[in-house]
What we know:
The chain is of the alpha/beta class. It folds into 3 domains: 5-127, 2-Layer Sandwich (Nucleotidyltransferase, domain 5), CATH 3.30.420; 134-265, Orthogonal Bundle (Helix Hairpins), CATH 1.10.287; 271-423, no CATH class. The chain has 17 helices and 8 strands. The protein has helices at 38-55, 68-79, 89-94, 106-118, 130-163, 177-185, 189-193, 197-208, 212-232, 239-268, 272-278, 285-294, 303-310, 335-348, 360-369, 375-396, 405-423, and strands spanning 5-11, 15-21, 32-35, 59-64, 83-87, 123-124, 318-319, 322-323. The chain has a 6-stranded mixed sheet with strand order 3-2-1-4-5-6. Strands 7-8 form a two-stranded antiparallel ribbon. Strand 7 and strand 8 form a beta hairpin. Helix 5 (130-163) packs antiparallel against helix 10 and helix 15 runs antiparallel to helix 16 (375-396). It starts with a strand and ends with a helix.
Amino acid sequence: MKNNVVVGVDVSKEFSYLCMVGPDGKKLAKPFKVLHTLEGLNFALKRLKEVEYQYGSKCILVMEATGVYSRLLFHFFHQSNLDVWMVNPIQSNSIKNIKVRKVKNDKVDAYRIALLFLLGKAVPVRPPREDLAEINILCRQYFRLSDGFTKNKNHLVSLVGQVFPNYDKVFSDITSESSLYILENFSSPNKLLKADKETLVQTIAKLSRKGCNWALKKYDALIDVAREALILGCAPPAAEIAILADTAVLRALNEQLRVIECKIRALSSNVMEIKLVSSIPGFGILSAAFVSEIRDFCNFKSPKKLVAFCGIDPAVVQSGKFKGSQVNISKRGSPFLRRVLYTAALASIRKKKNGDYFNPVLVDYYEGKIQSKPKNVALVAVMHKLVRYIFAVLRDEKPFRLITPEEQLKAFEEARLSPLKMTV
């Protein structure tokens, strides 16, 4: 590829600048602006084809991986049979000081991106698999809706704490069906005190599915809270409107989360990689999110590369004789991946309803770490283990099998000695 024409692309929302550079690093023409319209992109494609014909060399497009903005250009030019390479924005930002003079504009950035390719810092990109791309969009939307649900839930807890002090002692989960019914229909202490006892008890029993005796206890507790709220409540009457708004939003978000989760599960049922990752304790719907984020497992030749892609590798701080010992994880990579791994790590070391641990091997590993490390550091170590589990099941294309470290060492020794036995 030494003789190819390199085209640096500085991507913006509505337009991009393209800079064509020869193998010697010199510009072949002035950078030009391209609008993100069909007419604009066809114009750019025509210019690139003319350059290919003129120099007898194929054009290679190099652009920053800027998410939704670069995705449109990648799709168009890839469909046009052009090679498209990507650079990390961190890399392109680091080359901004390649010249002493401080210049920052789209034309210069396009040229610098082309130089990154000539320096060997860009990587070829293949279009994502259609099934994983579809799952990825849904997983990211699921997380966004989950964040919105949590935000509105916290706001509702704050409001209810002012209208009904100690309400959380009656319903630990304010978003349960019984709790939402109470807040939607009796959003003030006076309304709750005037409610028909028999109807309210029967409704709570039906929604909770725990029987009339349990519902009757809840009713008595609610009445006590309502009476106290007449004295302790400090919210103005308008708080009732805010409570009704929050409950409506929570119900809508909960319904959308349910729809998206069902769709993710349906799409994931035919994806082998997701089935393999879901065999690891602690992964459920999270396995779909993880696999869709890494896209192509073939890009990772070792567990360390996958760890680095997740951004949980330790940052290196070293200069001369100084070597930093207290460093944080790099956090370079998808934040969704780190979120998935963090949640899976917590899930893998928790107990089941019967008292057993989901992953007793990781629990022992975690408890050993917290003897000398802070809990968050130990949890990151568990995340590292999970990534190695994932790498192993995807590499071997076999479901996860829980074995102790001793059993693993024994299997390793047997595998290492088996060629020697065959030789003898």
